[in-house]
Amino acid sequence: MSIQTLQPPLTHASDLRERIEQQGFAVLSAESVAQLSGASLAALQHLESTWTSLSPDQYLKDGGRYRYRRHSSYVINADDVTLVEHRAHWQPLSYNALHGGMHRWFEPVESHVSQDPAWQALLRFLGRVASEMHGAQTWFTEAHQFRIDTAGGIGRPTPEGAHRDGVHLVAVFMVGRHHIKGGETRVFNMTTPFGQRFTLSQPWSVLLLDDERVIHETTPIQPTDENGCRDTLVVTLRAKAFLDDPAMLKV
Asked: For the chain, what percentages of helix, strand and coil (3-state, to nearest 5) are there?
């Protein structure tokens, strides 16, 4: 069955910085991702099988069983990527009204994935993008492997709705869409009526968001002819420190 979708507004690799400065976000094709990261498409595609080993998200407050994920944290300093001790994912209620305020302990990204040269190349690439946007500095980075499935009839990529993540740069890599409809991405400017909607579909294309200027969401997905799923890699980069529960920080 043919599903009509709105194609994303692709940005040429050489225009990335200008486009983000103009509108607060940009979409790169998989070919541009490979060019800018130095990871070949074949190397990126090799990572796709690791999305079959994600663990169920036990924290969904809507009672759903449609989300699987792994999560790890890194510190990026120039071309140096360091995996840090496994830590909880935490957001304040002001950024995530549904799941904020919770210490969510997800299974870590598997070690062979964290050490994969293509994975490392993607993180270094995002560190360079963040430094071009905000000046060269250390980036406190969280990577989330997501699978949203439709075994229950519907899956919600962003059950919290349109939101910010409380960071400086958000990257949403499309890894794969399988037997689904829906999953439309929506990006809205925080200070003007400007917004766009489109569907990420090309594996290893990426949506890059200036989290201080735009909010984003993805609409629910449904299966087409059998149970389907949507796989993404979401990476957030924040200056100065990880986003942590103030109550847990030492004075």
From this structure: 25, 35, 45
